[in-house]
Every structure is written in C-alpha cells, then in structure tokens.
Amino acid sequence: MTLTATRFTERYLLDPAVNADPYGYLNSLREHAPVYWSAMHRAWLVTGYDQVMRCLRDPAVSADRVRPLMDAVPQGAREDAERAFGILSRWMVFNDPPNHRRLRQVFQEQFAARAVSRYRTFTERATGAMLARKAAPGRGGDLWTDIAKPLPALVFARWLGVSPAHGPSFWYWNAKVADLVLGVAQDEAEYRTSLQSLVSLEDYLGNLVTERTADPKDDLISSVLAGGRIGDTVTEQEFTGMLTQMAFAGGETTSNLIANTLLALLRDPALLAAVRAEPALVEAAVEETLRLDGPSKMSIRNAARDFDLDGHTVRAGDRIFLVTAAANRDPERFPDPDRFDLHREGSTHLGFGFGAHFCIGAALARLVAGVVVGVLVRDYPGLALDTPALGWQNSLLNRSLTALPVRY
Ligand code: HEM
C-alpha cells in the first residue's frame, strides 16, 4: 500500500492511455485514496466499493445535476435551452426522493424480468435475421457496426413503439441528446443541435402517446397508459419527459455490453471454450463483463450539503464522481478482483448502479445481451478477433469500443 501510495501521480481520466485501459490506473488511485479530491477534475473521485455504496445510500448525495449541465451551455445557445432543460429535469435519473420514487413507479411493472421476457422471441428472431444478412461465416467485418449497435436499437424501437420508418430521425435525435448529456457537445452550434434534438424527440414521443391513447398497441407506451397512472401519479408532460430518457438510456449501453462481453471471450480462448461447452454460462459472462469492463464507468452526483466521507469534508455543491469501474475491482469486496471468473458467487457488482437509481432497464439489457452473445457463440465456431489493436471512444462515463473487427 505505502509503495504504491508514495508513487501515485494523478492522471487525467480522459488521457488517451488511461481512457484506453483505465483499470490499472483506477486500481492505483483506489489504493492511494479511495476518496480523493481531484483538482484536475474539480470533483471527488470515489473509487472504493464501500465508499461508493455509502454515497449511493446517503441523502446528502444528490442526483439532481441538471443545473451544472445547463451552466455549461455557451451563452449564444442559451435561448434554446429552457424547454430542453425542462425535459431533462423530468428524467428520473436526475431526481431525488421522494419525487424520484413517484416518477419511477410508473414504469416499474413494465421493466420487471417477467414483463420484458415477452421480448425474448422478438430479440432471437431479430438477431437471427441480422446475422444472416450481415455476418457470413468466414467473412471479416466490424461486429460493433454490423450487430452490436443496430440490434439493441431495433429491439428498443419495437419495445417503445417507434415504427421502422421513424427509426432514422429517432436515433439521430437520440445521438444528439447523448452529446448533450455526456458532455460531447462543445460549441454553440453543437449545443443548439443537441437542445433542438431533445425537443424534437419529446414532440415525437408526445405524438406517440396521443396516438396510443386513442389506439393502444403492444408496446411500452400503451402498457404504461393502461396502468392508469398517467394524469394521476404523474402528468403527461412528466411521462413524455421520462420517455426521452428511456430512448437515451436503452441504446448504446446495451450495444457496449454486447461488444465488451464478446471482446472478453474472444481475447481468452479458455473462457470462450467454457461458454461454448456450457451455454448457460453466457449469463455469467455478461455479468462478469458488467463488473470488469461494463458499459458504465461512473455515476455523477452533487453534495446537497456538507458531509463527512471517510474523514474528508465534502462541501455542499461539490461534484462527486462515483467511479463504479474502480469499485467493481475493489479487493476488499471481490476476491482476485481483476480475474474474469465465470463462477464468481454473490457478485453484487455496481455495473447497473445501486439503490434508488439502480438501472430500471437491467432485465431488458441482460436479456438482449444474453441472446445476442449466446447466438454468436453457438452459431459461429470460427468467430475470432481480427486485430489486437482496438480503439475506445473518449468518454468519462461510457466504456465503448469504436469498432470490433472480427472474422465471423
Ligand atoms: C447494459 C446496459 C445498461 C447499463 C450498463 C446501464 C447502466 C445504468 C446505470 C449505471 C444506472 C444508474 C445511473 C446513476 O445512478 O446515476 C442506470 C440507470 C437507468 N437506466 Fe440503465 N443501463 C443499461 C441499460 C438500460 C436500458 C436498456 C434502459 C431502458 C430501456 C435503461 C434505463 C435506465 C433508466 C431509466 C435509469 C434511471 C433509473 C433511476 O434513476 O431510477 N438502462 N443505468
């Protein structure tokens, strides 16, 4: 501990080398100080498992962070911001209890594992059809672009009730909303496009709600409407605001789970052989990927008031980065933490977060990733990585490949 501690030098989390392979650096940061004030990031970096859990349970740690996002908008784009930030303020992930509970309960039933299992057959068929079109055995291709990216998009569009004809605009708006929320938008023009895209997305989903009210179908919007809580527990405006979050949260995260799980298997022939020999282990592979190289690296919070964290005084208004990617490798919580273990027991990883904001889409994401990885492992005995050199999108929050070149 002391050796590492004395040698520790802080690095920028978006430094290309750290972003490409963050885990060695995050391990040394956690060993140095599981709660660390970073002047570089102007945030507390919390990397210890217990310390992250403590924050996720503490009402002094607030999820309300729309204001800082708004403050980042350049002056020239501010006039476009009001309605867009009104929408973001209705996202459950940015709300604290008790309001958060009121918003979330409207969707709870539709996301339960039993409810989402209705989409298994659709997912299996869509996977089969997409692989038949895009992944001829023996041919080379980019598994990220061919399969991992479009497949969850197809399932989520079907599940939300977005018709294939509207898919292109729907996913374009979504990508621009992601630029806003993930801090990719930089200049005025980019902010304008992102803010307007969020408004367009809400208008589109608002129209879908009107259509489904008159003529229900077999999709998420219709089943939430049938629950009778819209206009009662939450307003219609809150409902459409939350739907924009569903659209945003469902797509790329699940793509990354598929790609990162396949990467782990393709990099380790013994793991791949084990999963081939016992297909039920696909679920364990997805779960270990969520712990070791999951799509989400951290959750951001703000201190609502002064509080003590491991002997450090966190001040009201301070930013807190809950670095779940580091907590998930904490040796105090996970024996042999850097090892991909298909038989790990009782792994309460934080890949889907924890507590009030635990990912509501976890069952759906697990289902889609499990089906896609399972079919690829079963039906493509020659599947192999085409290059050891891989690129990662530069992002504080997401762990996302830029491509996954393979031989099918
Ligand atoms: C592998 C895929 C996914 C990962 C890794 C993931 C990860 C997460 C994480 C870490 C959180 C907690 C955020 C925080 O505490 O600040 C979260 C929340 C959330 N996720 Fe996911 N997610 C995934 C898929 C999905 C899907 C498919 C949906 C819906 C279609 C979804 C909807 C949500 C929503 C609505 C929240 C906010 C919940 C709340 O605030 O109560 N996610 N997700």
From TrEMBL:
<protein>
    <submittedName>
        <fullName>Cytochrome P450</fullName>
    </submittedName>
</protein>
<keyword id="KW-0408">Iron</keyword>
<keyword id="KW-0503">Monooxygenase</keyword>
<dbReference type="InterPro" id="IPR002397">
    <property type="entry name" value="Cyt_P450_B"/>
</dbReference>
<comment type="similarity">
    <text>Belongs to the cytochrome P450 family.</text>
</comment>
<dbReference type="Pfam" id="PF00067">
    <property type="entry name" value="p450"/>
</dbReference>
<keyword id="KW-0479">Metal-binding</keyword>
<dbReference type="InterPro" id="IPR017972">
    <property type="entry name" value="Cyt_P450_CS"/>
</dbReference>
<keyword id="KW-0349">Heme</keyword>
<dbReference type="InterPro" id="IPR001128">
    <property type="entry name" value="Cyt_P450"/>
</dbReference>
<dbReference type="InterPro" id="IPR036396">
    <property type="entry name" value="Cyt_P450_sf"/>
</dbReference>
<keyword id="KW-0560">Oxidoreductase</keyword>
